[in-house]
Each structure stands twice: as structure tokens, then as C-alpha cells.
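User: Quick one: structure for sequence A, then sequence B.

Assistant: Sequence A:
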Amino acid sequence: MDNTNKMRLLIAEDEYLERQAIRLILERAGEPFEVVGEARNGRQAVYLAKDLQPDIVLLDIKMPGMDGLSAARDIRNILPSSAIIFLTAYNEFDYAQEALRIGVVDYLLKPIRAQELVEVLKNTRLQLLREREEQEERKKIQEQLAEALPWLRVNLGLSLIWGLWEERSAVERQARLAKLDVLPRVAFGVCMENRLEDNPAVLTRFELLRYQLQGLVEEALSRHPCGICLPISDRMLIGLWGSREPEQEQCLCCLANDIIETAADKLSLGVTVGLARFCEDISQLPRAAWEAQAAAHLGMFYLGPERVVHVDELEHKVDRDGGVYTAREKELLEVLRSGDVEKIRQVFREFLISVFDNPSADLYLIKARLMGVLVAYSRSMGHMGDQDEEMIQVYNKFARQLSLCHSVEEMESWLMELVLAGNSYSGDQGGKPVTEAIKRALAYIHENYQRELSLTDLLRVIFLSPGYFSRAFKEQVGCTFSDYVLRLRIEKAKKLLVETDLPVGEVARQVGYPDPNYFSRVFSRAIGMSPSRYRQM
């Protein structure tokens, strides 16, 4: 007999001979069933079911005292995953109906035929095994989801603050998987005070503090319907928050103060929390993340730790407390607006000299002051309003890039990219026209037209968003990027067809079309005749 996944049976039957007959049938069948108990009435059946925990209960409907129907209801409450099979000599419709309502798996009429009983039990066993496998699979999925929950939340949070989502329904589905009851409505930044020294022990302690602070923020957020904590850089965390409470701004301020007090009490660590404006829609979260990071970073370096700073009061607060921008920073802002690359390099180096006059100066201080320059520059270029959500995403990327700079040279390159992005956007609003970025784009196209060329590859080189670049390119060049590439390739092909004896297929390859047939179709549409005909003409 196969004892694998043996099923435990309880027989509830008031007739002794009937119980013995069932035992004999099962012994002769040789199937993996074990009779673990016998009951003479319904009350005893309920008691034994609770005590023995059988997989299958064979239950006579008509028994003295508590009948089988009543016993089945109680057993179903005690053992919801067990299978109940009714045995009865009465073929009445009411019994069958009630059996279905209780959830009985089958209904056998007496006298019971051995083959029929064995078949019913075998089918019931297979059904129970399938249900257990499905239950085990569901349990594994739930365990995997629980393990993946931190990753799911971080993935959702990053897609929201970077604007990397397309359909709101997909965001809502991810939020449900991440066990978030509501979508976030605001962002806040948590900036750690600087404790870095050129000492491995101190660095290790700082890494531990950063990990502990993230856990502290996550614990504070866990008490809200939506709370996501994102480590953005070595000293900055971004929190996304949402609530159904009526006084949301007051609740957010309480959360911020709670984080500050808990970090001081439990970690002896000073942090500054920067608050963004609330969002009407999740599409505004990239702006909110940018505001939160800027407020926390600037608040820490110009006001000190253990402060809550709202982005709307930032400039007023820091100006009142001594002024944010030195003469060098103001000069740097002016040349950034001008777009003069060489002048920017010169003023940036003078700015560095002024920073390093401070004995305690380090890269973090430079980053903090450049963050202030970035905020002031974005506002002076008119890019901080709600109507400029796309550009907010660009400045948000610049804020992230600045936090990842590890040398003065990287910061200088960062500034060059910043002025190109800022001036390119102002060009399509009637300001200074784009020059340097488009020149670089055209040079890149002419150098790479012979291979597969995509707008994505180009934007990685000049660091502009697709929308800004497309508008600026069309203004400056007079056509779209794809039209320009097409015209350039056709002109190069015409020259090769006239000046060389290369086969048409080779001409196609040399101008960026690996498929000669496709090249012929493109050429014919552009010129009005095939490449071969053009060569003859």
C-alpha cells in the first residue's frame, strides 16, 4: 500500500455493523487511508473531529441525538479544510440541498457499494492533495512577496520620483502589491549631519548610522497608509508619504519632528527634514522629490541640524539668518545664465578657491553650496512653477548627479551640463537660442550616421530630455532629428552613387542601412527614383 500522503478517516455511523463493513472495504482496497476513529452519534463525531483532526469524515445523516447535518456544520467550523462525505439511506432532495450548503464533497446512498465508496474516497483524496498544493503555493507566494516587499516599495518609489511610469493603473497595481493603501501625495528629505573623516573606523560607523537612520524612518512611515523610504545618496533619504487624515500638513510636520527627535534620542544623530509642497497628482512627485531634497540639503548646511524646513520658506529663512549666497555664488549664477562656457569654468575655479579658504571645507560643503546654486538657477530661469514639470525632472536628475560627484572635476563637468540644459529650455520660451548643445548634437550625428543611430544614444551624450531637445533642434536646424539624419544619409548616398562604382548594397551599408531593400525604398521615396536609376541619370 502506498503510504505517501495517507489520509486520516473518521467514521460517524450509529450502526456498528456498518462501521465494520466500511473498515473491511478500506482494508481490502489497499488504498492510503487510515481509520483513526469511530463515532456512534453526531455529538461524539464533533468531539473526535476536534481531537483527532481527520482529513475525511464519513458522516451518517440520521443518527440519535445530534444528527449528521448539525454535526457537519460544527465540524466544518472546526476543520474548514477537511472533506465531509454523507452516508444515508434517504434519497431526499432537502438533504442534498443542505449538504451542498454545508460544503459536503459527496453524498452516498446506503447500502454502500464497495467500489463506489473506494472511488469516492480516491477522488476526494486527490482533491484534498490538489487543494493542499495550491495552498502551499499560495503560502510560498505570500512569503516571497513579504521578502520582496522592501524591493517592491523602493522600485515603486523610484519610478514615481523619476517619472518612470506610463499608466496610472500599473502604479496602483504596484501599490497594492507593496501593501500601500493610498498613493503618496508629498515628499520629504532627511539629510544627515556630516561626520566623515579620513578614518576607516569613522567611515564604518557612518555607514552603520545611515543604515540605522533608514530603518528609523521606515518604522515611522509604517504607521501610515503610504510610506516609502528611498536612499538617494550617502547622506540623503527621500520619503514619500500619503494619508487619509484631514489635517495632512500638520500630520506631516509631526512625522518630521518625530524623525528628528528619534534620530537624536536613539542614534545621537542630528538630521534636517526638508518638506515639499503637496501634490495634486502623482505626476508632480518628481517636483516634490526635488523640492524635498533641496530643502533638506540647504537647510542642513545653512541652518544646521534638527530643523524642519519647508521649500516655500527656504529662501526667506536662510536670508533672514545670514544669507545663502556669497558674492562668488552670485557671480557663478550670473555666468550660468549667460551660457558662456569658458567664463563659467573661470568663475567656478575662483569659487573653489573661495570655498577652500575655509579650513573645514570639503566636497560635501561644495556640494551643499552648489545645491543652493542649482535651486537659485532653476528659479531664475523660470523653471520652478507647476507648469514646468518636465524641467523639474531634469533638475531633479541634476540634484542626484551632484550627490554622486566624487571630485572637483566631476562637479565642473556637472556645471557644464547644467548650463546646456537650462539654456536649451529657455530657448524655446523666447530666451537665448540654443547653440552649444545643438552643435554637439550635429557633430555627433555626422560622426555616427553610418551606424544605427537613435535619439536615446544622442541624449546620453548631450544630456537633454527628449522633449527639450526635439523642440530646440527643430528651432535651430529647421527640421526634426529623424528628418535631419535621413537627409544627411541620402546626401551621402547620392555622392557615393555618383563618385564611386560601389554596389548599391555597399552604398546602403556605408550610410547606415544594413538592409539594401529598405535603403532602396527610403531612397526612392526621398528622391523619386531608385538608387540604380539615379546613378544612370
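Sequence B:
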Amino acid sequence: MSPTMIKASLMAALLLSGAPASHAAQARPPQILVDCSGAGAGTAVSSLADLNAMRFVPGTRILFKRGVTCHGSFAPRAGNSGTAAAPIVVSAYGDPAAGRPVIAAGCAQAATDSDQTLTDRARTPRGVSPYHTLCRSDGGDGAAVARAAIHLYNVDHWEIEGLELTNDGAGEGARVGLLVQLEDFGTGSHYRIRDVYVHHVRGYLKDAPGGEHGYKETGGILFNITRRAVNQRRTRFDDVVVENSEIFHVDAIGLSTRSAWMCRPGGAPCGDYPPYKTGAATLSAAAADEYTPSTNIIFRNNRIHDIGGDGIVVRTALRPLVRANLLHDIWLRAAGNSAGAWAINTDEARFEYNEIHHVRYQEPWEPGDGMSFDADLGTRGTHIVSNYSHNNGGGFMLFCGCGNDGLGHPAQASGTVVENNLSLNDGRRAIVFAGSQSAVVRGNLILNTRAGLSAPAAENTGLGSKNAGDIRDNVFYHGADAGTLFRAVKPALRHDDIRWSGNRFYGYQHSGEFTAGQFFEGDTANTVLPAASYDPDAAMRQWFAATRFRERSYRR
């Protein structure tokens, strides 16, 4: 055996045993090669079970061989953290032409679908389709469901890049592609997910009665903070970046953050999370002081498509940034309301330069989601700017405060700003008010050029204690000269909290709603003109040029 191989074998043995390495060995962070093919060199780790048994020092590089599939779950032990100066890196080695290394946590025997055509062909013409498994065998009766292909539990300072992750199954289960979970940890810092391909993750489509995990705890890439009791250590994420990755054909959520440290006055319902949801603790007024938001969350330049439920959700966070993502074919399977990208119980979320299209609207939900964006329960200061939304079944924008915090207060969306976006042929209605304390919708292009699409400018559902919004300086265009202002879910519903100022309505001149008692004009007069007096194509060209959207949006 050569001296290099002897040194590598010694380092692997030290890592496996947990014994301290020498000072000389620690001078260069160890590199661990993983080859599950059975044909690897003697220095390579040959199974995930052996890898999971190791202790990793800061700076360790864990490299999976390209073109090789490891079956099972990579779940390092709690405490295996890197440092700010020396994060633990998971990446690939070998011939780039061989393809990505794969970690397959689900069935051991599966068809391949490298170009996604098998899965795409299984979709119905309308698009709302059952999950399409690639499994030929699910591993036999009683086979355990792996929680995730990669499950990082109570570790931080990790970077993961260049891998392919699956967690398929013949039936639904509590599955995730990549799960980062903290519990009683404090602040977990520095997580980098780059160029990771997650696909065919068969999670849940609705909550299973008595199940440990809700359906929104299953899906592609999830950052989840859990609790089991009241008197635990406050925990949050800080410095999370997910970028340049693809999530395809997963149930139920594409990319998400969650936290059980989320109770606050006016926030999302505290009883939705353990320990209160499970009855392990009694929800009292003391819970109002538990809010511990995650910080420095960035989701950028990811492609997320063929998703059973929601595309991107940020929860219990401060100033998260969702930028330049491409989301399409969303809400294809889940039983509950879903949307493209949205925030809940979060302050100052910013969504910019995202393209979202073909979010489905599923009957019989009423009033129903299916839109691009949503400022949901307990959001404050959400900013949605310079995004391109088109061909979404449920519309463009939802304000949802239709509930309470579990502490006796309404959970409103407040301070939302929606500006300089392009909405093209978003169906059912453009803007939905289902509980808004305050909002400004200004300077947007909301265009309807598709024959037969009515898409009223706004809908006031009657849900939530207040539905307030200042809709100003927007362009609403209906190419068939048949535009309508409101869709009233309840016939007697009033819209007295919505003010319309300085908008231009093209193709709405036959609507009597502008002089009806339900139309409340703001500080600047609105203009109503025929559709023929407006050029939507020229307006779109100008919008794309002014925003430099093509340069700033998703790039493959």
C-alpha cells in the first residue's frame, strides 16, 4: 500500500472511531471518498451506514463518486458541525461525464427518468395529476420510510453541492429530499445548498390522522425547527442560502422554512405546532413571547416545478429574500390550498425577479388559492416587487389574514407592498383580499389578453376582520372589452376598506361598478378607457426593459 493510501486509511479509521487525530493530520482537513458501487478503492467508504457512523472534524470534505447511487439516508450524528472558518463540505468527485452522485432514500429498484419525460407524460392534459412513482419495488412489506435522503440534525456550518437526491415510494410517507432540522439547539448558522437536484419525493398530500408529521413537513428541501416541550432552548436558523438548484416532482412542498418557535400576538395560529398541537403543553398567554425568527434566509435562482402543494414558503423569519426563482406547475396534487411563493408569520420578506406560472386552481376550494404570491397570516411588511406572474389559475396576489393567532387576536397581513410587477393572464381574479390590515398595490401591469378569461381586478372574500388596500397607479387591461372590477363571494359584500386611486382601466368601460356603491375612489381619479386605446405588447416590452428582468431573473 502506498504512503498516501496508508494515510487516508488511518484518517478514515480515526474518524470512524472518534479518536483524536494527530496535530499533523489535522493541519489538512480530511477528505472522505464515498463510493457505493462496490468497486471502489479500499480507501473509499462503501456505504451510507459506514459514513453515518463517522465523526467529522471541521473542514472535512465528503465527496460522493459521480455516476454512483448510494441507497439509504445520509444522516450524520448530531454535533458533527463545522466552524465559520472550516465548514463541512459535501460534494462530488470523479468523471463529470458520469453524471451526479445520487442518494436514493426510497425504493431500491426504480426506473430512470433523466430527462423528466416519463414523469411529464404521466400528467393529465389539465395538469392536475397523481404522483408518478418510478419505483419498480418498494422494498417489501414493512419497509421503513426514510425521513430524508440527507438529514442534517442539530449540526451547522455545512455546505452541500452537486448531488442528486430522491426519496420515492409506492405509497405516501413522511419523506423529504434534503431536511435540515434543529431542536433545542440555539442558533444554527451557515447552511449552503448549491446545485442540488431533488426529485421524486413522495410525501403526504394531506395530514394523516394522528401522524407525527404534517403534509407540509414533506417535500423537496425543508429547514425545520421542532419542539417537544415548552421549556426548551429557543432555536433559529441564521445564514441559509439555497441557490442554483432544481426541485422536481415532489409532494407536498418544494422549498420551505418552518419553526415551532412562532407564537406572537397577531401571528399565525400557535396551536398548529407541537408542543401545543400535540397537547404536550397547554397554550397560555406566556406563549406570546416565544417568537424567534430565523435570519439571513436567501432562496435564489432555483427552478421548482411539478410540486404537489406549495412552491416556496418562508415562515417565522426576518427579512428573508426570495429572488430570481422560476416556479411552474404548482399545486398539482395536494388536498389543501396552495400557492406559488409566499410568506407567513414573517416580517419584511422580499420577493423579487421571480417568474411564476401555471399554479393550478383546484375545485372545489372556495375562495381558493392557486395564485403566484401570498402575504399570509401574521406577515408584516412583505414586499413583492418586479416579478413576472402569468397563466396562474387562481390569480396574481393574495392577502390572507383569515384566522387568529390562538391567543385571542386576529392574524392579519399588514404593511404589504406589491409594486412594479407584471401579471399576464392570471385567472379567476387578479387580487384577492381575505384578511388585510393594510396594503399598497401600486405601479403594476395587470393584463388580460386571453379570450374567455374574465379575471376580475379584485375579489373581497369576506374572510378576515378587515380587508384594506390602497390600489393605486396600476394598469388593468382586458383585451375583450369585458373587464369587471369585483368578484363578490357574498352578494351583499362591501369593499369599503379598498381605495382605488390613479389607476387606468382599459376594456372596463362597460362595467357599471365604477359608479356603484361598492366602488370607493381614493385621492386621485381613476381613468376608464377602451381596450383598443392600449398596446399591451408594447407595455410588456417596456416593463421587461425597465426592470431588466431577463438579466436579473432565473438563469440556468
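The CA atoms of residues 85 and 453 lie 55 Å apart. The longest strand covers residues 187-194.

User: Thanks, that's what I needed.
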